[in-house]
Amino acid sequence: MSPQIEAFDGAIGAAVTDVDLSQDLDASSQKTLIDAWNAHSVLVFRDQKVTPEQLLRFSRYFGSLETHVLEQYLHREHPEVLVVSNILKDGKNIGIPDAGRYWHTDLSYLAEPSRGSILYAIEIPEENGETLGNTLWASTAAAYEALPEAKRKQLEGLTAEYSLGNRFNKLVEDGNKDAKMSAEQIDKTPPVTHPIVRTHPITARKSILVNEGHTTHIHGLSEVDSRTLLEELWAHCTKPEFTYRHVWQPGDVVMWDNVPTQHLAVCDYALPQRRLLHRTTLTGDRPY
């Protein structure tokens, strides 16, 4: 049976049914999913049960995989799997505990940000029957298209700096005094410059790349003007009409196109409420 695609109401996302991600998918099914991924940006698969090996096989249908720079949170047997978790072992987090606290585009602090990510839910926190740790995605393509023509012209040709260190600085400012990068991680991720408006490599659709988590400033503007424009764009991109909120269930697999989206993980849980997910990351190209 071929995967069935049902678009969500709104600017972003679709549900996929009639597919078992633990099994090999034929070429026709792969094409259906790739086309849906490009069209809807976020795909949701419910009731899945996949091993790390099966998750990797599925992920490779969409491109090559990369190993995340935060090596302390990689799966021990499968380094292309990033562990996302607040669970402690011997006093240390087994995975990245606060992934996505700020609106961000994955790895936009690299010269070649990731093309996309795939996240598999194993344990999801709950309280009084309510699921915690939801994730929101925003269509930065729909946000760009909703801008007035004068604002689009203002953004043409502008570039900004992106930095992983910006995220860690924000964590410290928010009270996490233990948030820090290793010297090796600092060396691996120097600040990079990207255009504010990015063009999709497949669809040619334009989107807004600046994000709260990784963007430090806009080149060529004063500090005040840069901050004003950034905050305006961040607020615009995350308006409700451009977003989809995912309420996680164990067995969910969600994949997203990193080019025309930003996302945010809601950090409204804490131990003993446990959260455990596995993530793969697809390699991408330099933004243009």
Order of helices and strands: EEHEHEEEEEEEHHEHHEEEEHEEEE
Radius of gyration: 18 Å
Number of domains: 1
Largest sheet: 7 strands, mixed
* Measured distance between first and last alpha carbons: 38 Å
Walk across the major sheet and give the strand order. 1-2-3-17-7-19-4
Estimate what percentage of residues fall within beta strands: 25-35%
Helix content bin: 10-25%
CATH class (first level) name:
Alpha Beta
Low-confidence stretches: none
> Can you tell me the CATH superfamily?
Clavaminate synthase-like
Summarize model confidence as the mean pLDDT. 92
What's the architecture in CATH terms?
4-Layer Sandwich
Category from helices, strands and their pairing: alpha+beta
The oligomerization state is single chain
Written account of the structure:
This protein is of the alpha+beta class and 288 residues long. It has a single domain (4-282), classed as 4-Layer Sandwich (Double-stranded beta-helix). Helix content is 23%, strand content 26%. The strands form six sheets. A seven-stranded mixed β-sheet has the order 1-2-3-17-7-19-4, with helices on one face. A three-stranded antiparallel β-sheet has the order 16-10-18. Strands 12-11-15 form a three-stranded antiparallel β-sheet. A hairpin with a 6-residue loop joins β13 (197-199) and β14.
